[in-house]
Amino acid sequence: MKDSFNREIDYVRLSVTDRCDLRCTYCMPATGMRFLKKTEVLSFDNILFLLNRLAEQGIKKVKITGGEPLTRPDTVALIRAIKEISGIEKVTLTTNGIQLVNYAQALKAAGLDGLNVSIDTLDPDEFREITRVGDLKKVLAGLNKAVEVGLPNIKVNTVARGELTNEAICEIALLAKASKIHVRFIELMPIGLGKGCPGKTQEEVILALQQVYGELIPFEHRLGNGPASYFSLENFQGKIGFISALGHCFCAECDRIRITADGCLKTCLHMDDGCDLKEALQTENKEQLLAQVFTAIQKKPEKHHFLENQGDSRLMSQIGG
Prior knowledge:
- The protein is of the alpha/beta class.
- Helix content is about 30%, strand content about 15%.
- It has one domain (about 10-320): TIM Barrel.
- The two termini are about 25 Å apart.
């Protein structure tokens, strides 16, 4: 599948739930969230029908997102089933890590190809303040378990909040020194509660790292499905990566679409558009489904408009991170 700008679309980010066991300050309000009812969320069969049809049209990579995908009881079974779909080459998962210690072995057995774990600080008190309810010990135990069982391509994602000190940046980066874990700093995007929140630029983070660890050397190879740029540091086993949608726009190479937990196809994270695939999925109407997908992809915008203050009115957890 190609869009009107000749970009090949071969990657889908699929949200399997809008629920989460954390309440991060830049993502969700402390109270008052209205979550989807179970009947509104795509079922196991809906998802497999969708991905089988997308794989027939050239989708090769699937990222399972949320909310927190490990709050959905059948996520591991779903990953195992997706791995069996002809044409799907990689299935990866993004998680906050709270339940990872209990699922790492099962994810390995299911054939997961990569894992992203969100860790915004290594200070336990600050972690609880950011997440409102989170226990950093559980996340680190899950990360260690993932390494222990041999899950491949493990990445730690850190949102480059304005409050992130240079010392905290360097401390988080050390996760890439002792193990082959890639640490990525993600530019804070103005979506939902993230609008108006201060963030650090890629250049600010690089400067903080170089002052302590020396020169960051560009690493030219890809380390996953996404748009991150990577750098090597001397004596570090893992790489340091950056995802900077505002400061280093990568829209020209965008190869993805997103599916929300309730079956809305979005062609751009930022835009408040898309189409509802739920009816076609529930009736397993292949022709209707593909017609909607092809039409949406042809309307995929050339680039995001974060800096023009337009965009989706939903929270990140409702879109799929």
